[in-house]
Write a structure and sequence with these properties.
The protein is of the alpha/beta class. Helices cover about 40% and strands about 25% of the residues. The strands form three sheets. It has a four-stranded mixed β-sheet, covered by helices on one side. Helix 3 packs across helix 4 and helix 4 packs across helix 5. It is elongated, with a radius of gyration of 25 Å. The two termini are about 50 Å apart. About 20% of the residues are buried.
C-alpha cells in the first residue's frame, strides 16, 4: 500500500492490534501505522494527512541518518562508501571507499588510530623545548573530551573519533595534552605554551567545536 504526503510517495505498512491508540513511525522504507482492529483505513489516511508536517520532519531525520551511514570520514576527508562483494580489502579511489563489509571500516580506523596517534605524539613531543615526560598513549571513545592528560601517570588519552579529522587537528589535541605536563589548568601560561607549539590552534578549536 502507498500514500502520498506533501507530494512524496511513501510505502505504507499497517498493523492491526488490540490497541487503544494509533501509533505512527517513519522508517527508511516507509510509514508504519499500528492501530486498533476497528479503525478503518479511511481513518488511518485521515490521521496521516493530519500529521503530514510531522511525517515530513521525521522522514528528513531518517534520511539524514541513513546518509551518514553511507559516508566515511578519515583524516579530515569524507568518502562515499561503496559495498563491493568482489574485494577482500578496503580500497580508496578518489572520494570513494570500496569495501566488502562496512564493519571492516571500523577495524581499519582502530588500526590507523593506533598507528597515526603514536606517530604524531612522537612528532609533537620532539617539538617541545621544555622538559616533559614522554607519555604513554591510550585511545578511548569519549563523549565529551578530545583528549585527557594524567600528569601523575605520565599518560595522555586521545579520543578515537580524532582519526576522522585531519593531522592538523590531531596535532592540536596532542599538543594541548602535552602542555598540561607544564600547566595542568587552562591558565594564561597554558595557552601561551599551546600557541608556542601550535600557533593556529584556534582554527583547530573551531573545527573540533571546542569551547
Amino acid at each position: 500500500m502507498h500514500v502520498v504526503v506533501n507530494g512524496k510517495l511513501f510505502n505504507l505498512y499497517i498493523e492491526k492490534k488490540n490497541n487503544k491508540n494509533m501509533y505512527l513511525r517513519v522508517k527508511k522504507d516507509g510509514i508504519y501505522i499500528t492501530s486498533n482492529y476497528l479503525i478503518s483505513n479511511k481513518t488511518i489516511l485521515e490521521f496521516i494527512e493530519k500529521n503530514a508536517s510531522s511525517i515530513i520532519e521525521m522522514d528528513k531525520k531518517v534520511q539524514k541518518k541513513e546518509k551518514k551511514k553511507e559516508e566515511f570520514y578519515y583524516l579530515g576527508k569524507k568518502y562515499d562508501v561503496v559495498k563491493l562483494n568482489t574485494i577482500n580489502k578496503i580500497e580508496f579511489v578518489g572520494d570513494r571507499v570500496f569495501v566488502k563489509n562496512v564493519s571492516y571500516l571500523n577495524t581499519f580506523l582502530e588500526n590507523e588510530a593506533k598507528r597515526i596517534f603514536n606517530e604524531r605524539v612522537d612528532v609533537c613531543f620532539n617539538l617541545f623545548e621544555e622538559n616533559i615526560p614522554y607519555p604513554e598513549v591510550a585511545i578511548r571513545k569519549m563523549k565529551r573530551k578530545w583528549g585527557y592528560c594524567n600528569k601523575k601517570e605520565k599518560l595522555i588519552k586521545l579520543n578515537f573519533e580524532l582519526i576522522k579529522y585531519s593531522i592538523n587537528e590531531i596535532d592540536y589535541v596532542i599538543i594541548h595534552e602535552l602542555c598540561h605536563f607544564l600547566e595542568f589548568n587552562h591558565s594564561t601560561n597554558f595557552w601561551k605554551y599551546v600557541k608556542k607549539y601550535k600557533s593556529d590552534y584556534k582554527s583547530s578549536q573551531k573545527i573540533l567545536k571546542e569551547e
